[in-house]
Amino acid sequence: MAPDTARQSTRPAHLGIPSPAAGLHAGGLFANCPDLIGSPSVFARDEEIFGEGEEAEFVYKVVSGAVRTYKILSDGRRQITGFHLPGDLFGFDPGEIHRHTAEAVSDTKVLTFKRRQIERAATQKAEVACQLWDLTARTLRHAQDHMLMLGRGSALERVAAFLMAVGERLGDAGSFDLPMTRRDIADYLGLTLETVSRTISQLEGEGALLRAGARQVTLRRTRMRRLIDA
Amino acid sequence: MAPDTARQSTRPAHLGIPSPAAGLHAGGLFANCPDLIGSPSVFARDEEIFGEGEEAEFVYKVVSGAVRTYKILSDGRRQITGFHLPGDLFGFDPGEIHRHTAEAVSDTKVLTFKRRQIERAATQKAEVACQLWDLTARTLRHAQDHMLMLGRGSALERVAAFLMAVGERLGDAGSFDLPMTRRDIADYLGLTLETVSRTISQLEGEGALLRAGARQVTLRRTRMRRLIDA
DNA sequence: CGGGCGATTGAATCGCATCAAGCTATGTGG
DNA sequence: CCACATAGCTTGATGCGATTCAATCGCCCG
């Protein structure tokens, strides 16, 4: 009943593994709409795909590479709200206007779909509208899990959960490559790049992961979970 | 292009006024569905309306009072994801299961709607499905704005933005009453109740608000904005 | 081989959390 | 009607974790 038990702490504790960092695997979304075929398109590292405030003409699906979506504050602080990996959809803020900027994290191939076309399909077929609803709902769930992380997690919890989530989404076969920089990770987790770097070193020091270069990591999931659970 | 300009700082700065703390004014959502009529229901202060993990049988609309929705971590930390004020809808996580717990912040009147009924209407009428989609999208926008706050805002920015948002949603006629405790505010903003208290005192000290008792506040919006802008 | 960006590491600082009293309303029972 | 209890709020002292500032390292690419 009363919330009097709510405690706060900066100490490590179980955050639950949040849903993958942006997880919007498209499933068969457009499968049954034969006229909805995406046009392939390529973006170079750090190239803008769309900007905040622009008209939302297209919707995108990542084929290879990675994309970040973010907002910038007037003083330059940046909050990345999601990373989009192969298979993920992005750019689907309902409404006429993009509410984020999207950039390629690395060289990236995407499929582009006309938003108008999709929305028209939605107004005609309730089935399509429900799928879009479900898609937005999954994005919402991710956002809420991430809120929990940003509001309540220590640096250790945030970084560990992030690495595990990205690993899973990349189909972690033992080890994997992080597509993004430390700064990107920091701006996603609400930390500084130095803290991210230190925390990864700490995780390595405690045997929760191995590194081969800055980007390639091998997770020891059991040890990592032990670190953040207790 | 490159995100190298992203800076970080703990200093106050413009966060943009985030959308109101949960803002889901129902608009005319169920207006054109004459068979969807809510049953009135009353909950006492701190009474649970639904629990995380429960089957999502109903959807709610606040008539009077206030509701909080939150998640609890295994160690007791609580993250409130939204406050729901008169006119707001809540409990509409798509899916069969509630992903939050909802409690009355103060004595509260709500209207309850059968979720099944609404979803059935959605599968039949594309128009309804689109409205639900839009509803979820608005919740998503709020969540993303809140992420920005949690990830990047100082205590001062968070509290000031929160007060302004709540004031607006309550139709701030000069001054208004906060329905929730300092602990609730803290668990929403990712702070401790002491920090919230101190920050409000600080805002008062700098002439950004007046207090009449702990809960009633009068905002000096211009001064408050100056404080967080610069 | 050298330039440069990204990552790491160190030292000092700061903001918020934590721990710990008091304070102030509100309400209750004698 | 007042003493007392209690819940919520405020305020103070202290500590810790993350940020900030500042080198330095190391890898990748020209």
TrEMBL record, chains A, B:
Gene3D superfamilies: Jelly Rolls, Winged helix-like DNA-binding domain superfamily/Winged helix DNA-binding domain. Keywords: DNA-binding, Transcription, Transcription regulation. SMART domains: cNMP, HTH_CRP. One of its GO terms (cellular component) is cytosol. Residues 43-91 form the Cyclic nucleotide-binding domain. SUPFAM superfamilies: cAMP-binding domain-like, Winged helix' DNA-binding domain. It holds the Pfam family cNMP_binding. Residues 153-223 form the HTH crp-type domain. GO terms for molecular function: DNA binding; DNA-binding transcription factor activity. This is Transcriptional regulator, Crp/Fnr family. It comes from Methylobacterium nodulans (strain LMG 21967 / CNCM I-2342 / ORS 2060).
